[in-house]
Amino acid sequence: RIMSSYFRARDALEPISREMLLERLRSESVTLLDVRPADEFVQGHLPGAINVPLAELDAALARLPREHAVIAYCRGPYCVLSYEAVAALRSKGLEAYRLEAGYPEWKAAGLPIES
C-alpha cells in the first residue's frame, strides 16, 4: 500500500505506454534516455537510446536536445531511476516523460534492441 501510493503520487508524471512510444518514434523526434548504469546499457537497450545514468544527469543536461521530448526508461515500472530523471529534467524546463515499462518488458515483448 505504501509503495502503491508512492508510485501513484510520483506518476503525476504521466507515463508513456510502449505503444505510444512506438508511435512517437515513427512520427516525431524524441530522445530516448536510458538512466540505468552503463554496464546494464551495454548489455542491451532500446534502439537509438543514449545512456545517462541518473547520477550523471546534471552533468549531461547541456547535451540533451531541448527541441523535442525526452523519454526516460530504466528497469521497469517500479524502477525509481526514471521517475527521478523525469522530475529532474522537468525541473530544468525540459519536456520529459517516463516510459511506463522498462527495458526488460520491451525485450520480452520481442521489440528491437541494440547492444
From TrEMBL:
Gene3D superfamilies: Rhodanese-like domain
PROSITE patterns given in the database record: RHODANESE_1, RHODANESE_3
Classification via SMART domains: RHOD
SUPFAM superfamilies linked: Rhodanese/Cell cycle control phosphatase (SSF52821)
Record InterPro entries: GlpE_sulfurtransferase, Rhodanese-like_dom, Rhodanese-like_dom_sf, Thiosulphate_STrfase_CS
GO molecular function, one term: thiosulfate-cyanide sulfurtransferase activity
Domain Rhodanese: from-to ranges: 26-115
Protein name: Transcriptional regulator, ArsR family
Pfam families linked to this entry: Rhodanese (PF00581)
Entry-linked CDD domains: RHOD
